[in-house]
Design goal:
This protein has 232 residues and is an all-alpha fold. It folds into 3 domains: 82 residues, no CATH class; 46 residues, no CATH class; 90 residues, no CATH class. The protein has 7 helices and no strands.
């Protein structure tokens, strides 16, 4: 029963959500299950926060490798939670200057805004800057002309990379106007708009078909792996 009841709840809720987009009579049922989903999602956030705190506290108590990062994680979590729960606004508030830290908690100058502008944004930029080196290293290992497909990938990559830089303009800028389409900057745009768009659409169609197939398997009770313990 511990697996049958959740499975039927998921099947009924899934069909109600799907049919509500096609049949007006099912709209109320779809809205009800959407509200239930929001409640469950809120509970999941609480459980996730508890799990995060538990894991890092255990790491601190055992003094595992990297336990110093757990202090930073827990400290950031508690500060953010404190600001969010108390809805701390900016001070002084232009509308109510005598009411300390009142007003909207996400307005410019508030604690949320400060955290986003001076902590999250620099950290995100740093992560993407580091990611560029990992991508370059992976590309160097992958772009080895071992076969026809690798040669095509290598040539396309060089066209796009050089076409997006000043070097590409210098290398092919001498081409006459009637051959302007062969300039690297124009070839790069053509590759991105034609071949890249076609590839992205094919990938998105494949993802959509996969999602639909997986959803139908779950709705009809064929795939029960999400319940845990295998497909049985």
């Amino acid at each position: 029963m511990k697996r049958i009841i959740p499975m039927w709840i998921a099947i009924i809720g899934g069909f109600a959500m799907m049919l509500s987009s096609f049949f007006p009579l099912a709209e109320s049922a779809g809205e009800m299950f959407a509200d239930v989903f929001n409640v469950v999602a809120a509970i999941a956030f609480v459980l996730g926060a508890g799990s995060l705190a538990k894991q890092h506290l255990q790491k601190l108590s055992r003094r595992d490798a990297g336990w110093g990062y757990s202090i930073i994680t827990l400290g950031s979590f508690l500060i953010t939670l404190f600001i969010g729960v108390l809805k701390i606004g900016m001070h002084p508030n232009p509308n109510f200057p005598q009411a300390a830290y009142s007003g909207s908690n996400d307005a410019e100058g508030s604690a949320w805004s400060w955290i986003y502008e001076y902590m999250i944004t620099p950290l995100t930029s740093t992560m993407f800057a580091l990611l560029a080196f990992f991508v370059a290293s992976a590309a160097f290992r992958a772009f080895r002309a071992k076969n026809t497909e690798a040669i095509l990938l290598l040539v396309t990559a060089f066209i796009v990379l050089l076409g997006r830089t000043f070097a590409g303009v210098v290398l092919t800028g001498w081409f006459p106007d009637w051959a302007s389409g062969l300039r690297l900057e124009n070839l790069s745009i053509y590759v991105m708009q034609v071949f890249n768009t076609a590839g992205n659409r094919a990938i998105m169609i494949g993802i959509a078909l996969g999602v639909a197939a997986t959803g139908l398997r779950i709705l009809f009770g064929i795939d029960r792996s999400w319940l845990g313990g295998g497909d049985a």
